[in-house]
Amino acid sequence: MAQKKETVYLKADRNIEVEKRAVTLGDVLKIESVNPILLAKLKAIRLLKFQKESSGRPKKQERQAVSILKVIELIHEEYPDVEIENIGESDFIVTYEEQKSAGGIWHYLKAAGVVAVSFTGAAFSIMAFNNDVDTVKLFGQIYELLTGRASDGFTVLELTYCIGLVIGILTFFNHFGKKRFTVDPTPMEVEMRLYENDLQTTLIENFSRKEKELDVGSTDTHGSDRP
């Protein structure tokens, strides 16, 4: 009777960040097997190694696109009889980024700068829109039509418009501070996920077109000294 082969399941996210230059399969993949000994050995297999700069210092950030076929090839080099099931991405990006400290006061200054720019930009956009459609004149005409009196520029219409604008913004963005009004993702989160997906697709395609993707038959483009 033939011996039953081991089955290994692999799952990779689209983009994985690592903190060390020598990257193993366990650093970037979720691996599952009923054999705990095999599982530990698979996680220790070297995938790639990010180089240092000519000065000897590690680069602050670097990316490498990897094909899941390269991962399968590395596993089969060590364990040719293992059956592999990939339930994740077929191509993924490994991003090495040099770890930095929290930043202290500089971090808070940058956050305050972003808040100030965002607030100023939003306020300018609202004022430009109101000026473009001449909201003041429109409210004045509506107020005079309904009451028979001329508007002094600040009536119940302007007040309710300001309140409604705030409510509309909070409803649209679906949160205020850390409080979320519904379980749905906010429009900003949706746009950020779409941007990340487009960015990752572009990176993978660029690596593939330049033939720099770590794929079957290719060697470690970062100078790994894999045994």
Structure keywords:
47% helix; alpha/beta; disordered C terminus; 18% strand; 227 residues; eubacterium ventriosum atcc fold; three-stranded mixed beta sheet; 2 domains; 10 strands
What portion of the residues fall into strands of 2 or more residues? 15-25%
Instruction: Report mean pLDDT, rounded to a whole number.
Output: 83
Distance between the termini: 35 Å
The biggest sheet, with number of strands, parallel, antiparallel or mixed sense and barrel status, is: 3 strands, mixed
Class based on secondary structure composition and strand pairing: alpha/beta
The parts where pLDDT drops under 50 for at least 5 residues are 221-227
Q: What is the share of helical residues?
A: 40-55%
Morphology call: elongated
What is the number of helices? 7
Strand line-up across the major sheet: 4-1-7
Query: Rg to the nearest angstrom?
Result: 28 Å
Count of separate structural domains? 2
Report the strand count: 10
Order of helices and strands: EEEHEHEEHEEHHHEEH
Keywords: Membrane, Transmembrane, Transmembrane helix
Transmembrane segments: 108-129, 153-173
Protein name: Stage V sporulation protein AA
InterPro entries: SporV_AA, SporV_AA_N_sf
Produce a short descriptive summary.
Keywords: Membrane, Transmembrane, Transmembrane helix. Helices cover 47% and strands 18% of the residues.
Structure, explained:
InterPro entries: SporV_AA, SporV_AA_N_sf. The chain has helices spanning 25-28, 36-43, 68-78, 105-133, 135-147, 156-173, 187-209, and strands spanning 7-11, 15-18, 22-24, 30-32, 46-49, 61-67, 83-86, 91-97, 175-176, 179-180. It is an alpha/beta fold and 227 residues long. The protein has two domains: 7-100, eubacterium ventriosum atcc domain (eubacterium ventriosum atcc fold, Sandwich), CATH 2.60.480; 105-207, no CATH class. Strands 4-1-7 form a three-stranded mixed beta sheet. It has a three-stranded mixed beta sheet with strand order 2-8-6. Strand 9 (175-176) and strand 10 form a beta hairpin. The longest helix has 29 residues, at 105-133. The two termini are 35 Å apart.
